């Protein structure tokens, strides 16, 4: 049976920067490389960057990845790359990517750009109404209308598949559903119809399994201590078959493990109702899945069932929600827990006496007996409260209990902006995605 | 007495302000035991310090697994949460420490 080999070498923004080049070298038959950079509130961070510099607003790490794999591409390595690194500015990302390929001496490359996920204007236009209610709390979006920063719909596989059909070697998107990065090449290779829900469901499961990179190959496994050679853990490869089933594996000679256990652990990661895993490409049931070890580090996953996806796209909106800072200090010796708790109380008491108490505060004393890491976290809409707070930890070095230590390694708390997460839905016909393919 | 981790493995993460915990039987033959002992009431009680507003249990007999969704246990989740574990990553292995009144083999 025909199959398409799709790897993932970035499960999140900040993942191992060497992984893409390592995966390409370790898996010479890999046809597609997916790189996932966008977490729920990533877009709000990108919005801040774009505000300071309109040419930014995408995951800059992707450019370093392209730099690192450009020599392989120049040598003629054939692989197509699919990434959501475009963030809020897929075109800007594509432009920079093209420059890197050109400078590295790579021959002509076609870069596909998917746009249209940004629905902020549409949401802003209705922000004073009862529309776009929060998916969990059902509150209307008018509660955060004035603080909205970003709003992006999770597009599906179709625009990416279209870019691939138009000959794109690299496809750069903004917000798309993570599994769709894997579903798209299967659709493009096999010519599946968009209503072939059962096969699309299978590819969606494959995408779900590899989207978090090494979490499929032994990372964060319950039995992690028994996972072989974790220092050289391999990134996952999904062999997606024409019938929608898949085999999850990893390059030979790498560390980590692909077993029934590591695959089952990742199957249930961050899911809700397993009878209705929602993606823009299909609604998937996990209840008929079969997981079987075919060989060492090869696990077959089959039996996914699919139905039509929702008539809405999920939207991740973010809004400004004040500021936060976290202070850390180590307290050791007799009564360390009691000493740490008292230190936490002192900091919050002094903060209250200095002005007004913070809107929210959380004190955690982490550790046992004689070694405790005191963690004080504070949030408030007023930046000056946080500026005061960040100066209240260090005095404990001399005024606090005997046994305060570890401060030299820990910088003064940094004040960070808080972005609230507002999940909501938008009708599909209110989202107009576009695909363009440019030559580099 | 055994610990849950003797017969199951687990993984947890966030779904917005909720957390999910998947618990999977190490041997399919222990799935009925999981079904019996890991009720929503037991799991809600185990995590009572996190004050879940709701605990739902989904059954995946084909995988020998249960999926629990605990609402409002992450102090708002994401960048809003002030907790060390803002994303519920620690809940799975915490649950595996649960003692079960089951005879050792």
Please bin the fraction of helical residues of chain A.
25-40%
Structural class of chain A: alpha+beta
Proportion of helical residues of chain B: 10-25%
Give the neighbour order of strands across the main sheet of chain B.
2-3-5-4
Q: What CATH first level of chain B would be assigned?
A: Alpha Beta
CATH architecture call of chain B: 2-Layer Sandwich
- Percentage of residues in strands of chain B: 25-35%
- What is the averaged pLDDT score of chain A? 96
Beta-strand proportion of chain A = 25-35%
Basic shape of chain B: elongated
Major sheet details of chain A: 10 strands, mixed
Largest interface: A-B, 46 and 37 residues
Radius of gyration of chain B: 14 Å
What number of domains of chain B? 1
The spatial strand order of the largest sheet of chain A comes to 11-12-8-7-1-2-3-6-4-19
| Number of DSSP helical runs of chain A | 12
Low-confidence stretches of chain B: none
Series of secondary-structure elements of chain B, N-terminal to C-terminal: EHEEHHEEHE
Mean pLDDT of chain B: 95
Number of helices of chain B: 4
> In the CATH scheme, what's the topology name of chain B?
Alpha-Beta Plaits
